[in-house]
Amino acid sequence: MSRLVVVSNRVADPRKTAAGGLAVALGEVLNNSGGLWFGWSGKLVDRPAGSPQPVRMHHAGQVTLATMDLTRVDYDAFYVGYSNGVLWPVFHYRLDLADFDAGYIEGYRRVNQLFARQLLPLLRPDDILWVQDYHLIPLAAELRALGCQQRIGYFLHIPLPPPLILAAIPGHDWLVKGLCAYDLVGFQSGADLEHFTDTIRSEAHAQDLGEGRWRVFNRTLQAGAFPIGIDVQEFNALTQGIEAVDMYERMRREYSRRKLLVGVDRLDYSKGLPQRMRAFRELLAKYPDTRNSATLIQIASPSREDVSAYTDILHELESLCGSINGNYGELEWMPVRYMHRTVARSRLPGLYRASRVALVTPLRDGMNLVAKEFIASQDPEDPGVLVLSRFAGAAEQLKEALLVNPYDTEATAAAIHVALQMPVEERRERHVAMLATIRRTDVHWWCDSFLHLLGQTEAHESGTPWL
Ligand code: ADP
Ligand code: F6P
């Protein structure tokens, strides 16, 4: 059987807590199948730009982690500058936050070349490679240029915008061509897939061969939508675990007279946290029955603090939470409990289960696994309600959630009010339907269906020279 080689910027020990959908999902997958996981160690060294750092190998259960450090200069241009200062905002439809500094792209290309050069000697002829996310779009092209013949798949964890928005990135055609060097490209939703096919049709004259196959740059490329899921079984086990149960019981005791709402996110402007707070403030203002009877626990884990847009959102959020508590709080009740940190994964299900409502209201999100984790950890007899942004990839699947437009403060507040009042029969009905969906399309389904299709793609054709 072929060995699976996963390549991503972020590599995490699958046995430890990670905040971020990619690390959590791949940890689950590799824990089961075994294989090699290659990427950045998370460490920086003060060496000249582009200087190759040694690859360190260590074993974590079934998985071999192969990681290398980055130089500070490479990190600044590749990770902070291009990946998170250009691709992340544009792919999340935030052209206003993009910083198209010409220098960054060089660093992005340099680190992708470095990844290719350092990975190549570790590969076996029958390996299957699976490259993850926006940091590594040109990696297949770089590997092909070095003679790599193995099948290479690519999955984009974040949204892909429509062609006109993508076109705002100077030199975006190079990114599009880079995507076409893979054998299979996967997206989170049907909408993202459509944006991709619109792009290759209009910009690279791709010819539709049917069944997700395209003729483009003189080779055949397969493209599909593979909505990522969670490991429902593992999450159930976690929910029954001692730490989750303890968390659940403590929360239930503390909030016996009040209903709990919960938000769990990385602190990212795409997650719509200020909009969520404004909707909560509107709820307290417009529906007095919620005062002193509802508490919102918002956990926001620190993320990408080197990028200025992230520090801006931190200050905005702190000020909103402070003003809500200042205006509505009472001696024995604070409406918002905000924590800027990561919660241990073993305790999260207890917090979800004790909550009557989850607020998952991103302005744009590839999928959003928190929505699925919330559903998986509910008590089926007395489940909570998911308030979900229509702009999360998860909304394509979880139609029984209360879908909201997070830009519409009043309507979101009204939906939260409905969620808080919803009778148990209706809560059960919605929960059963969503649970069936997340079970059917769990993380193993995601991985198996992607890798199955990748295994079936035609043996590598070189096509147009890539670089
Ligand atoms: P993203 O990949 O953009 O971070 P997702 O919702 O898809 O968003 O995935 C986030 C993952 O990280 C989930 O598994 C979630 O449980 C975890 N996570 C996010 N924020 C926190 C936090 N504050 N504490 C603990 N885990 C978190
Ligand atoms: O899901 C999107 C994503 O960028 C993942 O690639 C990553 O695991 C997560 O968000 C956290 O981001 P970062 O790796 O920049 O901390």
TrEMBL record:
Query: GO molecular function terms here?
Result: alpha,alpha-trehalose-phosphate synthase (UDP-forming) activity
Signal sequence range: none
One Pfam family, please name it: Glyco_transf_20
- GO:BP terms for this protein? trehalose biosynthetic process
Regions annotated as coiled coil: none
Per the similarity annotation, which family is this? Belongs to the glycosyltransferase 20 family.
> What's the protein called, per UniProt?
Alpha,alpha-trehalose-phosphate synthase
Traced from the root, the source organism's taxonomic lineage reads: Bacteria, Pseudomonadati, Pseudomonadota, Betaproteobacteria, Burkholderiales
